[in-house]
Amino acid sequence: MDKLIITGNGPLDGEVWASGAKNSALPILAATLLADEPVTIGNLPHLQDITTTLELLGRMGIEPVMGEKMSIQIDGSQVRDCHAPYELVKKMRASILVLGPLLAHFGKADVSLPGGCAIGSRPVDLHIRGLEAMGAEITVEGGYIRARVDGRLKGATIFFDTVTVTGTENLLMAATLAEGTTVLENAAREPEVVDLAECLIAMGANIRGQGTDTITVEGVERLHGCHYDVMPDRIETGTFLVAAAATGGRVRVRKTRADIMEAVLAKLEEAGATLTTGDDWIELDMGGRRPRAVNLRTAPYPAFPTDMQAQFVALNAVAEGTGTVVETIFENRFMHVQELNRMGAHIALEGNTAVVTGVEKLSGAPVMATDLRASASLVVAAMVAQGETMVDRIYHIDRGYECIEEKLQLLGARIRRVPG
Ligand SMILES: CC(=O)N[C@H]1[C@@H](OP(=O)(O)OP(=O)(O)OC[C@H]2O[C@@H](n3ccc(=O)[nH]c3=O)[C@H](O)[C@@H]2O)O[C@H](CO)[C@@H](O)[C@@H]1O
Ligand SMILES: C=C(OP(=O)(O)O)C(=O)O
Predict the structure, then answer these.
(1) pTM for this entry
(2) How many CB atoms lie within 10 A of CB 379?
(3) What percent of the chain is modeled with pLDDT above 70?
(4) Concatenated DSSP letters for 2-41?
(5) Any residues with CB less than 8 A from the CB of 239 and at least 6 apart, and which?
(6) Is residue 122 lining ligand 1, measured as CB closer than 6 Å?
(7) What rounded mean pLDDT belongs to the chain?
(8) What distance, in Å, lies between the first and last C-alpha atoms of the chain?
(9) What is the C-alpha separation between 22 and 401, in angstroms, rounded?
(10) For ligand 1, is residue 302 a contact (CB within 6 Å)?
């Protein structure tokens, strides 16, 4: 297993670019299953989760054609087997996103239940209930969701009890080929849902209301090919900005978007950072200062994203003062806390709340990555720690950060990968 070795090396300084968003690329790749013609997706990030998705599509009979500049062409009409096996779904929960498209286009889908994961139990009951409301017959047997529909799915009004991102995306995709109108109420408003909707519209879908909590879809009989570029990754962008703030540095992130990052940028300003933004870049300047601790509470977009929680816990860990961080989305998303405390942080956990009292210096230590964003928080902490940190199990970080060590090296970090 590869490891990252990081030595604290003072303020980060320089320019880096944001890759395509993982959480947008994954549903968009699944959406290609809905079309009768090849769809070309550009600005795909080079990530383990993308490789897993392509393997999953390959098992279904699809032969993706690699193009230039991280683009790929996928022909949904090549599907021969509507099956997502356990050994791939267990590597990546987002595999559940093939359920809606397979059922809507081919009338059947056998998709392994994703099961729980490190950050929480993460059920998919709302995905299943929504598809049933659209006329699907669904059984769960032997750990598999077996979904069937005779003819087309039927449009329906679906209210989500809980705001769910992939749940909204699955039903949005299914609704594009359903007969009649589907209304998704209490839908997720995340920018990645909007990006997926825009891609579906480019494929000929009839969707309105994306980005609000009510999305309306008029089903069409078929979807066609298109070229679509994935939006920039706001979580990767935020991670670089937090790393800059924690080290007292100055970093410009290019090829990104400030307009979808308001909650995160506001917290960085509260922490004492000076932010400047342009059309497609964000610059953070900490001017060598130590950050101030911030209080935050995670919630669905446009509130503060749970995927940035761990990185802000690391920021608070070296800040002046005490910050309270409340996690409201996932029940077990504080596994970085123990590891950060092993590096000398002062973090007390009380239920879904972490009370973080900043210390002047952390000290390098061997630590273990437990999930994707927890790993990112350890990398941030390691860059401000005295001495060397070894982050083990970095396959988690490779799921969601493209070339993490090369990008951080560009900013002056002392970080290297040791193959395991
Ligand atoms: C690939 C992808 O886009 N992943 C993101 C997506 O995950 P994901 O879509 O899996 O997360 P959800 O938005 O579905 O989860 C939100 C909450 O709803 C609950 N729930 C969800 C579905 C369901 O059927 N029943 C149910 O109870 C979950 O347990 C959780 O407590 O949104 C999360 C919340 O922003 C992010 O952290 C993930 O990075
Ligand atoms: C939790 C995340 O991803 P996933 O839903 O793919 O596990 C994440 O991106 O932080």
Answers:
(1) 0.98
(2) 26
(3) 100
(4) -EEEEE--S--EEEEE--B-HHHHHHHHHHGGGBSSEEEE
(5) 308, 311, 376, 380, 401
(6) yes
(7) 97
(8) 4
(9) 9
(10) no
